[in-house]
Amino acid sequence: MKKQIFLSVMILSFVVSIGSIAIAQNDAQLSISTAAEQLNKLHEGTLVVRIYMNKNKADLLQKTIQDPKTSEEKKKSLSQLLKDHLEDREQYKKNVIRAFKSAYRFSKVVFIHDFDQKKLANGRDAGIFLNDQGIVDPSISMETDFYLLCGRGNTDDSFIIYAPNGDNMPSHFPNKYNRNILEGLASLFIKDKMSNYIKKLDGLLLDRYNRWKS
Prior knowledge:
alpha/beta
């Protein structure tokens, strides 16, 4: 009797395990299918690159400078700090635009200041898109209805793709390029790290697109 119960438990456990594996496989296939669908749409759509301007820092510096309680000496040093910060971000913005223009091919691409992201809800003619010089040009519009966002990663030289509402992309979607150890070491000697990263990301998107398409 005990042996029969033991065998029954073992059989039941086996059936449950097989079922769990099947469910996990179905979930994985569904996740890949969802990611593939989003990637196909991006290929025909637009990548909206939101450029990190760190406006909060600029606003805080400006507020402190205008505060009557701030000494003249402090205002002078903060004004220089603000000037350096704004110049740094302007140069960064131009670098981002140049790098994407030269290294990204997977889809159409447009650029916005990160603080204008909410205005994307106004549609393709939101009047927030930047020209090649990094200046807002109301004549520029997004050519597609579908878009995904792309923002700064862990550093100024890396980027992450995410959904229009700010959520993470579905599992298996190639939302960023992960360098291996050797590539990480090699990147230390690359002068234009940003363009190199974008080129790798672009290649990853195309590779995954072709693999899933076939």
